[in-house]
Amino acid sequence: MAVSSAKTTLAIDFGTSNSVAALFDGDRFDVVTDPNSGLFTVPSSLFVDGSGSVLVGAVAERMSRTDPGRYESGFKRTLVQPGTVSLGGWTPTRAEMVGRVLDFLREQADQRNHDRHRRAVLTVPAAYDDYPRSLMQRAGADAGLEVDLLPEPVAAAMAESGPPGDAEQKRLLVYDLGAGTFDAAVVTARGAGFEVDGNSGLPHCGGLDFDQKIYDRLAELTANPAARAVLTGEDASDQALQRRLVVRDECRQIKHALSDTSSFSNMTFAIDPPLSYTVTQEWFEEAIGSLLRSTIRCCEALLDACDLSSADIDHVLLVGGSTRIPL
After folding, report:
1. Mean pLDDT of successive 10-residue stretches along the chain, which has 327 residues
2. Residue 196: how many CB atoms within 10 A of its CB?
């Protein structure tokens, strides 16, 4: 059911790999979908076609294999890096790329109930200081939105617990393991709101890093020198880049499969000769074990910094797609 077009707020969770948006009128949510996939998860991806048009979301993902040099994704992870990115003749900053994704989400919301939406709530990591927050504000303005920023752990606490109301104080540990980063935060419900009492994180610990472990394993299993050069990047041709993108997609699919089965066998035809492989859940858990242990140490250090123990935490909230991994 579509929400009322009057006084609606566009809520956006901008992620490293995917973004989600929904309209809220104070009573009901209406989730925005990607028109090219029908899914509510919209890839945070861009592709510049031959005419200079910037494609966003699922269609950008599909076009990425035709010309990888015109494709970019994961730019939330590098938001604060200076300079521009060369993308098919377009040279945007990373904040401008974020703005294009936000603009796409706004356009889909506008079409949802035939209204022009100007106010948005945009989630950002609690670790963002003034500079990356200002970049996200600027990206929202580029998309024609008046943006209020909401810390991601507060959004998670609200989604899990609802408005805190006037109930007794409740302290939560938000464990957010997404595609690009790990973020931990202590969030306390006080009166009518939530407050972040402390936060910490690891900038390069997430699903993309888990995918890389599988990718490296496939490269190790590749005996043919020419095929291995494709996977390692020694072969810098456009065709090799296209093949690497295909294999990276396969690695993500392998990761997902290993959440449901103890062993996954298949053959990749992206390299020549094709590679037949088997990846086990046991191997995968050992491969990512050090990364996951680092997230636990991060949480322990955060609790120490907040002068808290695990006994002081009422609930642990697991947030982010990578928390679905059985380990």
Report:
1. 62 95 89 95 96 96 92 93 93 97 95 81 93 96 95 89 64 93 92 89 92 98 97 94 94 96 96 97 98 97 97 94 94
2. 17
